Amino acid sequence: MSVMHARLATRAMKQSLFALLLAAGLHGTAFAGFAEGANAYNARDYARALKEVAPLARAGHVDAQHLLGLMYYMGRGVARDYRQAMLWHRKAADQGKADAQYVVGAMYYTGNAVPLDHKAAIGWFRKAAEQGHAEAQHALGLMYRYHAAGMPQDKVLAYMLWNLAAASGNANATEQRAAIARRMTQEQIDEAQALSRAWRPGTPLPTQSRSGGAAG
User: Fold this and answer.
1) What's the CA gap between 192 and 209, in Å, rounded?
2) CA atoms within 13 A on the CB side of 190
3) Crossing angle, helix 62-74 and helix 98-110, to 10 degrees?
4) Which of 12, 18, 21, 15 has the alpha carbon at shortest distance from 143?
5) Nearest-CA neighbor of 106 among 175, 20, 204?
6) Cα atoms in the Cβ-side hemisphere of radius 13 Å centred on 149
7) What's residue 8's pLDDT?
8) CB 108 within 8 A of CB 77
9) Is 13 within 8 Å of 155 (Cβ atoms)?
10) Which residues of the chain have pLDDT under 50?
11) 133, 101 Cβ separation under 8 angstroms
12) Which of 92, 60, 59 lies closest to 73 in space, CA to CA?
């Protein structure tokens, strides 16, 4: 992969992560106290949110762990601390929270608060993507498109992943899919569409295609 393409993939990853964090809207659950904390966070009453959420996060509540991680990442109600952000997101990610898995992947990919580790990043992106997480699908598509992070270049898998992400409303994926389609044969597009139709959330994503490995 060229230096230009490496920078493009990394820049897109950082923009996608920042957009996700900015747009994060938290919704209440049945767990006592979390609804109040999430509502306070959405109302920008971060001191109250912290008071409600921190004890729940320490008790193992996965959504509270994710929210506390966001607060540390953005410096909302607490001093910005990326190490604490990673700690709480990792706890939520280990419990299967797709949003947290994506953030952990992005932090490993950019080397934010942890040693840069592309293999770990890909693993976390894949966990989230296989749950139907659009930003993680978009990220994996970038890896396949630009032969980044040790991933093979595969236009069919990139198109498939962007197709899935676009169906969930990811505008960046929609643009990337249109751009790569101009570099694909009809056979490749047909294969990518078939893979998209066959895949279901909660099942493994393919790791190679039949026709998408050609360079370009």
Assistant:
1) 8
2) 3
3) 40
4) 12
5) 20
6) 27
7) 54
8) no
9) no
10) 1-4, 18, 22-25, 28, 30
11) yes
12) 92
Q: Which residue has the tokens 């294969």?
A: 191
Q: What is the pLDDT of residue 112?
A: 87
* Amino acid letter, 75: G
What span, in angstroms and rounded, lies between the C-alpha atoms of 173 and 160?
Answer: 10
Query: In whole angstroms, what is the distance from residue 193 CA to residue 95 CA?
Result: 32
**One-letter amino acid of 145:** R
Q: How far apart are CA 116 and CA 139, in angstroms?
A: 16
Q: What is the pLDDT of residues 21-41, one digit of tens each?
A: 544 445 545 455 788 999 999
End-to-end CA distance of the chain: 11
**SS3 letters for the chain?**
CCHHHHHHHHHHHHHHHHHHHHHCCCCCCCCCCHHHHHHHHHCCCHHHHHHHHHHHHHCCCHHHHHHHHHHHHHCCCCCCCHHHHHHHHHHHHHCCCHHHHHHHHHHHHHCCCCCCCHHHHHHHHHHHHCCCCHHHHHHHHHHHHHCCCCCCCCHHHHHHHHHHHHHCCCHHHHHHHHHHHCCCCHHHHHHHHHHHHHCCCCCCCCCCCCCCCCCC
134-146 vs 118-129: helix crossing angle, rounded to 10:
130
Q: Which structure tokens are listed for 14? A: 């950082």
